[in-house]
Design goal:
- The protein has a domain of 70 residues.
- The chain is mainly alpha-helical.
- It is 82% helix and 0% strand.
- α3 runs antiparallel to α4.
C-alpha cells in the first residue's frame, strides 16, 4: 500500500471522528451526567497522554516526581500555567543538580 492511501485513510478517519458528533447530535444534550462526562473528557485525555511523559522526561524519576508534586501544589494554589511550568522546570533543575552532588 502506498503512502498516499495511508494518508487518505488517516484523513478520512480523522474527518469522520470530528464530523459524526456534529451531525448526530443536533439538539442540546439534556442529560446532566452525560454533559458532565463530556466536559471532562478532554482533560482526562490530556492527562493520560502527558502523565507518562512527565515521569520519563528527565534523567531521574526522582526529579520528575518532585516536579510533578510541585506543579500540582502550585496549580492547586491557583497560579497560572506559565507559573506552574516554570516552577516545575526549576524543581527539575535543582533536584537534578542535587542528585549529581550526591
Amino acid at each position: 500500500m502506498s503512502l498516499f492511501w495511508y494518508l487518505l485513510v488517516m484523513a478520512g478517519v480523522t474527518y469522520l471522528i470530528r464530523m459524526l458528533p456534529l451531525t448526530l447530535l443536533q439538539k442540546k444534550i439534556q442529560n446532566r451526567r452525560l454533559r458532565s462526562f463530556l466536559f471532562y473528557v478532554p482533560y482526562a485525555c490530556l492527562a493520560a497522554m502527558t502523565f507518562p511523559a512527565i515521569l520519563s522526561a528527565t534523567e531521574s524519576p526522582i526529579s520528575a516526581f518532585a516536579a510533578l508534586v510541585v506543579a500540582v501544589a502550585v496549580g492547586f494554589a491557583g497560579r497560572g500555567l506559565v507559573t506552574v511550568a516554570a516552577c516545575a522546570c526549576v524543581t527539575v533543575f535543582v533536584v537534578e543538580r542535587l542528585l549529581t552532588l550526591l
